[in-house]
Structure formats: C-alpha cells, structure tokens
Amino acid sequence: MSSPSQTTQLIDRFGRTVDYLRVSITDRCDFRCVYCMSEEMTFLPRAQILTLEEIHFISQAFAELGVKKIRITGGEPLVRKGVLELFQKIGKIDSLDELVLTTNGSKLQELAESLKQAGVKRINISLDTLDAVKFKQITRTGDLNKVLKGIRQAKKVGFERIKLNAVILKNRNHLEVVDLVKFAIDNAIDISFIEEMPLGVIDSHKREEVYYSSDLIKSDLEKQFELKSTLDKTGGPSVYWNVTGTETRVGFISPHSANFCSTCNRVRLTAEGRLLLCLGNEHSVDLKRVIRANPGDMEKLKRVIIESMKIKPEKHEFNLNEQPIILRHMSATGG
Length: 335
Ligand code: SAM
Ligand code: SF4
Fold this sequence. Notes:
By secondary structure, the protein is α/β, with parallel strands linked by helices.
C-alpha cells in the first residue's frame, strides 16, 4: 500500500479523481421537506454523530489527500451548535480552494455575514416554490418569508456565487419553474433543478407518481426563455444553460434521465461518520470507528481513506418503481 505522504490524490478503480468532499454535519433539520423526510423522524443520538473536532480532523485528512472543495451540508447545517467555529477552522485549511454550503436558508439572515467572514465563497439555497402556501406544504414547517430574507441577506454580504436548488415534483411545484427562473434572473443568481431521488422511506407521495424529468422542465422554460448551452461546471453534477441576456445559469441535476456517474469526483461523509463512496449505493467505510480507535493518528486515517477508493462503485442505479433500496434519507447522507 502506498504511504499517504507520497500520495496526493485520491483515484478510484475507474480512474476518477476524487477532489470534492460533502459533509453532512447533522441529520437534524428545522424543515421536513416531503421528498427528503417523513413527517415524524427519529434523529441520531448526539454520541453517534461526529463531533465538530472530528469533522475538522477528517476534513484536514481529505485536504492532505488532494481534496480541493468541501461542501458543508446536512440535514440543515446551520442548526448545529458551533457551526460557525467549524466553518472558521475548515476555512483556514490552506490547500482547500473552496469551502461551500448547502442550506435551506432559514438561518441565513442571521448567519450570512459571519459565514462570509469564515471563508465560505459559494452557497446553495434550497427553494422549491415562491408560493407561501405551497412552500409550507412542501417543507411542512418552513416559512417562505424567512428564507427570502435570508436570500436577500446572502446577496447583500456578497458571496461569489449563490445558487438556488429546486426539487421539482409533478403536481406539487412543476408549474413554478418559470417563476423560479424569473426570481433567479431578478436576483442575478443561478438555479438548478433536481430530479427527486428515491432515498429513504417517505410518507407523503409515491416517488414514481411525482417524477418530472429535467427534459420536461427544460421545455417548459424554453417557452419563456432562450437557453444557451454552456460548458460551465461547478464541481458538481449540474449541466448548465445560460439564460440569454442575463447573468443567470440554469442547471439540471438529472440522476434518472442523464446519469452523471462517469465524471463523479466526490464522496460524502455522513453525520455519523460513514464515508459514503456513492450517493446511490451503500458502499461505505466507518471513519468514526477509525478515528475513535486511533485518536490523533492522521496517517492511519489517510491510509483508510486511500484504501476506500477501491470500493467506490461505478454508478448508481435508481428505480422509482421499487421500494427504496437506500434506506438512509438525504438528510443523513449530505445532499
Ligand atoms: N437542508 C439543506 C437544504 O435543504 O439545502 C441541506 C441538506 S438537503 C438534504 C440538500 C439538498 O438535497 C437540497 O437541495 C434538497 O432539496 C435536496 N434533496 C433532499 N432530498 C432529496 C431527494 N430525495 N431527491 C433529490 N434531492 C433531494
Ligand atoms: Fe431539511 Fe434540507 Fe431535507 Fe428539507 S431538504 S428536510 S431543508 S435537510
């Protein structure tokens, strides 16, 4: 086995370089979005989730192994106590190019300024509708107004880039896509539309009944806007189109209709410290066990991470018509 100090890059069996880590820092959330969670959820006990120190230690190991981008996500990352200190510490890791965040926006009004100061450059904010009633129906507990204030504040403090993420479900919010793009244009921000993935058991709908493909969304948009293809990549699975005459790019994340696995460059750390090699498979390594059995042993941790590349699957296989084979929810996984 190669020594970690000689290896600066993580490369899997299919020749893909992994340089992007997504970290779920909590499985908890102040929302209960219908595609992500059931109404009643049992969350992990505190002792089972990684401490902020452990998250920082693992992030450091990945940075030493060539990871350039870390996304903090969840659950809702901004509900975790001490989250700002975590951002400040990870923001100081020299070799990282980017520290980014995915949030539901509910706490952004208070935290945007401090996040920017901690070194967060880009943020993704989830927004599935601009209709307050539908917003409540989709998030179950969310307040649209708070999120809109959060978006305004994020714009004001001047992140390099802000992107909205919208999961589109037929008959719930598929008629909203034009309004969402207009909102993105008015605010000079980007937006990605995401096809719902069958992760975890949910209780509000059958996933196959609400499937609304990226192609349908795109043709809905093309009735109103001219979309020009771009080669832009932001390190994730989105394929981007520019809305002619505007600064806004529209992205499509299409796990069903356009498999993006061949260019996969990322792995995920779950809230309980499992390194998950693929969103749509269960191949994982328990990094929490490794660091708790070998406190402070960075070389050991790096060796385990390098070895884990051998089990990164080639691709995900999602089937909307079957019971979910992936029982973990997106919130525990780190979307
Ligand atoms: N709470 C934060 C938020 O909502 O942005 C971060 C975590 S959330 C799990 C990350 C992203 O995953 C969100 O954009 C959300 O819309 C998306 N998501 C959640 N469940 C999903 C599912 N089943 N299929 C596709 N996207 C999903
Ligand atoms: Fe919470 Fe984000 Fe899941 Fe919605 S998508 S329930 S905001 S973790």
